[in-house]
Amino acid sequence: MSFPRVLRFGSAPILVIGSLSAWGCASALSAQNMSSGCRVADAVRVPARLGYLKELVSSSDSDQVSTRQDLGLTTMSSNKVSLVTKETTCQAAVTALNTVRQEPGTERQVWVYALGTAGYAVDDPGQDQQDVSYSDKVMYFFDRNFVYKRTLSGF
Amino acid sequence: MIARWRARTACLVLSWLVAVACQDSFSGPNDRGMPGRPLFHHTNPPHYQDCRMFASGATLINQGGWWEGQCSVTVTGNPAIHMTNPKPDTITFTFSSPVTDIHVTPLLGPDDPCSTTLMTWTAYDLLGAEVASGAWVPPCQGGSAGFFIAEAVKRIRLTAPIPMGPNQFSGGHAILFFMDFYVPCPPTGDPALDDPNVRQGLRDERASSRPNPDGSGRKERRGFLFQRDDGSYFLEHLDDPSATMCETGIQGLPAIPSIPGATFIGEYHTHPSNHLEPVTGCRGQKPGESRKAIRNAKTGGGSDGDWEYANVRQKSMYVIDNKLEVSRLDPNTLDRRNNPNRWKYDKDCIVRR
């Protein structure tokens, strides 16, 4: 934890302000450097993926229906889709993703979306955050036991 | 390359008793072959007392009335064509919406008399103003000669040569009129997409990015959009040999070519895969990883990467997918999901989707 370490430098008022800023940065860095698990939601990508997945599981649009069928998902209420914050689930997702990616032991912070009890969708932005090209982003789909089903590309 | 769909109409005027027949065929895009010969040839048929229009193959599609030496008949279609023979020496063709680049080619039947006098024509625009006129000596014995009108025209009026017969067009002679024209595309709201070169160019790039019918060999293609000083637009392809089905190969922002007399407007690329079509060889894709393309991610016509690219470049990115849908991704768009700048091809035109 970086918090006690930051406090050690917070003896003067001006330094306290500085230290609070430093703590914020330290927390962010800490999140990036910590071992695999859940990634903190952002303001753009997570809402977009949530929106997509909610529509995927509930829409009668023909493309969405065919995608759902391809993934072996049944129709469900959109409110069954949620961002997972439980570390053990995220850890399991990372392990499963590492298997698919054939990159055992790789540390990742991922966004995991629960699709009711049917399974999970996993988004690993660390794979593409350096891209400045037209690269399609992907999401990995797993069943409830984190058995790999499919990768969808085009996000 | 002109990207407009074409309608070809061949009209036969048999006027002994003011019988008018039109052979009408609507052909595919960019088919600018010479008009075919109508499937019927009759001259001086005294029993013809009506107006007839024929579709391809001489199937009667409409038959108009005849009264007191006048004929009036309409071919439905886009545009509809209304033909009348209001006076013995006059024929008019009226289009339901203006057409451009009209070639009119008359063809006389073998029994028709030669004439050394002029047949005249006048073309009118949507408001009824005369936009062009001319005259020509009609052809003899199966020969043909015609005229061309580039302007947008709503109506054409033809007058018969003299002497053509005692009653000119109503004098028992047969003239076939082939009309070959373009229907202008409606405006898209995006001047670049209104340019025929861009419309055709995007379509060509999309076809090239999916070279085989079975979908093998797919690769995204990309390039630049420029505007010339004269206001016209064109695409400049950028070779990207390491592109895949999922992305371009070039990383970062490629240098913009310097083209004299042209201004860089934006970039374009293709999405060659259909929805749920398996993709292979994509960057980061592992052997055995079952990856499929989706094209309905509700991201306004482009992937996150496409939008981010537009933001970094600070120029619009045009995307054409395999369903011939075109999206313009403008930089700094906040509501990507409801991107209003989306179109689709309708024949050779681009219309709002």
Task: Describe the protein's architecture and organization.
The complex is a heterodimer of chains A (about 160) and B (about 350). Chain A has about 160 residues and is an alpha+beta fold. Chain A contains five helices and six strands, in the order H-H-E-H-H-E-H-E-E-E-E. In chain A, strands 1, 2, 3, 4, 5 and 6 form a six-stranded mixed β-sheet that branches. Chain A starts with a helix and ends with a strand. Residues about 1-35 of chain A have low confidence and may be disordered. Chain B is mainly β and about 350 residues long. Helices cover about 10% and strands about 40% of the residues of chain B. In chain B, the strands form two sheets. An eight-stranded mixed barrel of chain B has the order 1-2-3-4-5-6-7-12. A seven-stranded mixed β-sheet of chain B has the order 14-13-15-17-18-19-20, with helices on both faces. Classes of the chains: A alpha+beta (about 160), B mainly beta (about 350). The interface of A and B includes residues 52, 55, 66 and 155 of A. Strand 6 of chain A pairs parallel with strand 16 of chain B, so a sheet runs across the interface.
